[in-house]
Design goal:
By secondary structure, the protein is α+β, with helices and mostly antiparallel strands. It has two domains: 77-330 and 400-422, Creatinase/methionine aminopeptidase superfamily (Creatine Amidinohydrolase); 333-395, Arc Repressor Mutant, subunit A (Orthogonal Bundle). It is 29% helix and 21% strand. The chain has helices spanning 13-19, 27-37, 69-72, 97-108, 115-134, 141-155, 222-238, 245-256, 348-360, 368-373, 380-388; strands at 4-5, 62-63, 82-84, 163-170, 176-178, 196-204, 207-215, 260-263, 266-269, 271-272, 277-281, 294-296, 311-319, 326-327, 333-336, 366-367, 392-395, 398-399, 406-415, 420-422. The strands form six sheets. Strands 3, 10, 11, 12, 13, 19 and 20 form a seven-stranded antiparallel sheet that branches. The longest helix is centred in the N-terminal third of the chain and has 20 residues, at 115-134. The chain is globular, with a radius of gyration of 21 Å. Bound molecules: ligand HZT and manganese (II) ion (2 copies).
Length: 429
């Protein structure tokens, strides 16, 4: 395999990658990146060293990305995400000696340290930068999934349950908003008219970075994307210790629904999808399990408050359709249910499959492709049995009505004692 290098020697990598990390909002870097990659796809070698202090992303990384992050960050210190001050009532936290002490404690305790999630987030930024460049109409969905997941496995230095993919790569198209990834035999080819949601999960020691963006190849849906990006950012801004979940939903909806989009000469309102939500994340569990909290995308009466130390995936979905999803199509995503009942399994194939799941995924979501690559075959009956027994949860694709278009943007945030950290923020979204 030939990997062209985007940059100079790896020795420069640490400094440069950090420059381009989380909160570099130099706009002309984005333009620069585009110039370097549009066209025939051959122009991969771009001199970056010259542009001081803003050489664009992933210096020291290859294309496709294959350099493990420990090579780029030998001291094990990963870039902080975007820091946002808590709002009005909570601004005292910034200077509170008690809260600063809590922060120090968190930084010292290896089980609580933020380095795990920051490493996952840096992998996310580097993988998605490549995904954005490489994904083109004409590609099969399977190729797209592999391109992303091969990158994630390499950069996170996949190792058992210590580091790896956080959940199956979501590649939902058009009216489908979430939880589609190809199964073996899938023949779908990406079209230039498609609206593709790219939802990537990376974990380090169970700390999952859950972040997603939307790709289009025609300008028609630019406003839809702007609406959803703005709604997600409004949700992030509103989030904070003691913030009420219902109020965050209201602001998300207000922001989202202040946009409209013109499609084929018709003006359509953008609707917040009313039955999708953001969620807490706890180690090895993409949604906070029994005590999980959800952040709806519409105004509601949930008085539950966010709390110090929580991790949230703040994600919003906009739609040109009804703004409601239903389960539709073949299922690809699954996850073991935390606290599943101890059901004795009579079906030997199900017992054996459960062993595989326990060993390779524990409670992390997985998809059929991941079972295929582990050498499992003809497992569908067993898998369906585990679902029927309440041991595994299935997560079928979630789609709005035919003809509707949906978009998503998502970030993982951490409610630190003194400050809100938008872990997955990049110079792209
Ligand atoms: C479930 C299965 C997966 C969590 C949200 C989500 C992608 O809709 C409580 C609130 C991956 C993730 C999830 F394989 N879901 N974020 N990114 N999907 S969810 C949910 O099931 S549970 C939202
Ligand atoms: Mn996601
Ligand atoms: Mn999520």
């Amino acid at each position: 395999m030939t990997h062209s290098t985007t940059t100079g020697p790896a020795i420069d990598a640490k400094v440069d990658a950090r420059v381009t990390g989380a909160h570099d909002d130099d706009d002309d870097i984005d333009d620069d990146e585009q110039d370097a990659t549009n066209g025939d796809g051959k122009k991969k070698k771009k001199k970056k060293a010259k542009k001081k202090g803003g050489s664009g992303a992933k210096v020291g990384q290859t294309e496709p990305p294959r350099v493990g992050l420990s090579k780029l960050f030998p001291d094990g210190v990963y870039p902080e995400g975007e820091l946002q001050e808590y709002k009005d009532d909570n601004i005292w936290r910034t200077t509170s000696e008690e809260k600063r002490a809590a922060e120090r404690a968190a930084m010292e305790d290896p089980s609580l340290t933020y380095q795990n999630i920051r490493r996952a987030a840096e992998v996310h930024r580097q993988v998605r930068a490549y995904a954005r460049k490489a994904i083109r109409p004409g590609m099969r969905m399977m190729e797209i999934a592999d391109l992303i997941e091969d990158g994630t496995r390499a950069l996170v230095e996949e190792s058992g349950l210590e580091s790896g993919i956080g959940f199956p790569t979501g590649l939902s198209l058009n009216n489908c908003a979430a939880h589609y990834t190809p199964n073996a035999g899938d023949t779908i080819v990406l079209q230039k008219e498609d609206v593709l949601k790219v939802d990537i999960g990376v974990h380090v020691n169970g700390r999952i970075c859950d972040s997603a963006f939307t790709l289009t190849f025609e300008p028609t849906y630019n406003n839809l994307l702007e609406a959803v990006k703005a709604a997600t950012n409004a949700g992030i801004r509103e989030a904070g210790i003691d913030a009420r979940l219902g109020e965050i939903g209201a602001i998300i909806q207000e922001t989202m629904e202040s946009y409209e989009v013109e499609v084929g000469g018709k003006v359509l309102p953008v609707k917040s999808i009313e039955n999708l939500s953001g969620h807490t994340i706890v180690p090895y569990m993409i949604h906070g399990g029994d005590r999980g909290k959800s952040v709806l995308l519409v105004k509601n009466n949930d008085q539950t408050r966010m709390e110090e130390g929580e991790y949230y995936a703040i994600e919003t979905f906009g739609s040109t359709g009804r703004g409601r999803v239903v389960e539709s199509g073949d299922c690809s995503h699954y996850a073991k249910i935390y606290n599943a009942p101890h059901t004795p399994l009579r079906l030997q194939t199900a017992k054996s499959l459960l062993k595989t799941i326990n060993k390779h995924f524990d409670t992390l979501p997985f998809c059929r492709r991941y079972l295929d690559r582990l050498g499992e075959s003809k497992y569908l009956l067993a898998l369906n049995h585990l679902v029927a027994q309440g041991i595994v949860q299935d997560y079928p694709p979630l789609c709005d009505q035919r003809g509707a278009m949906t978009a998503q943007f998502e970030h993982t945030i951490l409610l630190r004692p003194t400050v809100k950290e938008v872990i997955s923020r990049g110079n792209d979204y």
